[in-house]
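Suppose you are handed only these lines of text.
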Amino acid sequence: MRHSDIFPLRIKTPFDIITANNYYRKFNLKPIFIMAKTYKIAAIGGDGTGPEVLAEGIKVLKAAAPKFDIKFDFIDFDYGGERYMRTGEVLPPNAAEELKQFDAIYLGAIGHPDVKPGILEKGILLKLRFDLDQYINLRPVKLYPGVETPLKDKGPEEIDYVVIRENTGDLYTGTGGVTMKGTPNEVAVQSAVYNRFQVDRCLKYAFEYTKKRNKKNTLALCGKTNVLTFLYDLWERAFNEMGEKDFPNIRRDYYHVDATCMWMVKNPEWFDVIVTGNMFGDIITDLGAITQGGMGIAAGGNINPEGVSMFEPIGGSAPKYTGKNVINPMAAIAAGQMMMETLGEDAMAKKIEDAITTVVSTKMKSMSAGKMGYSTTEVGDLVAELVAN
Ligand code: IPM
Ligand code: MN
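From them, the structure of the protein bound to manganese (II) ion can be written out as follows.
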């Protein structure tokens, strides 16, 4: 029996496709109509090498898409230093509202050498993280085979964990101020602020992530309970209460942040998932990044599990390499992989990760800009070719 014997080919809406496929299944015929899912992605190239690396990430996503019946609709936004210098505006007032209409945001880098540090970082990157309530910053620390690490005698077996950095509180809220500015008595205060709600929602994500990862089923809280006796006491109580009550099968560890840095170098294999506040998370993930081969390969996701998330290479805008076609786009490509995973496209994410693994371990000479043995666009081509087949 042929498909057309069973169902008249009048496919006009997605419902017709479902109905047709149900008919075909009934008669043991393979469903033949599959609707491609379209993802609307906001692409913010940003500053410096941001646009170059993002272009390679987009190239890879577009190359992989057909195999997985996915379509992409990338819309460019010109947020960044150039726009700021031209218009005097960091972000249009309705930026967050507009971005909420997208399935995800794909970001290159923010930071311009001609703009005073802080303006763009706070005005664009942090503002979006806050306005879109992206309360998780997910930063995997994973050493791929063949990639050089500065850690002696450690390899991919040992360096494979995930840092979950809280992304909306702590020293990042701007709570504080300055008095008597410019006098010998000038006072500057910047407070680390957390409420229980913020801590709980971050911990819940971290426990669930650890459970889903199912590797060592161990969640480590990184804090500083010996000095920040208010802040990390709150974290530690919440951590233990939630763990005991809702996640009895997840082992709980605790490390002070200074010790965490030491063990990340000495015994990274101890870690499975680390959860921590915004400031410590910022600091330890740069350390983590260098152990996995540097900024050229480290990706991060600013995640709102109930809303719109934003994915970025964590390396910054690298002004001195801008426009030279030498920067490593792998972190941006890995951020794209993380975006697909977060959107629930696990098969496509896996395909991209496999391609990244192959290219970094069998092709690229180094993860550093200008030393890869390939140009930025060539690295993108290598990955794109693998995901397309
Ligand atoms: C990061 C960066 C940002 C941060 C800066 C650029 C504001 O260092 O994403 O880790 O501190 O969060
Ligand atoms: Mn940082």
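What can we learn from it? Residues 121, 125-126, 282, 314 surround 3-isopropylmalic acid (ligand 1) (CB under 6 Å). The mean pLDDT is 94.
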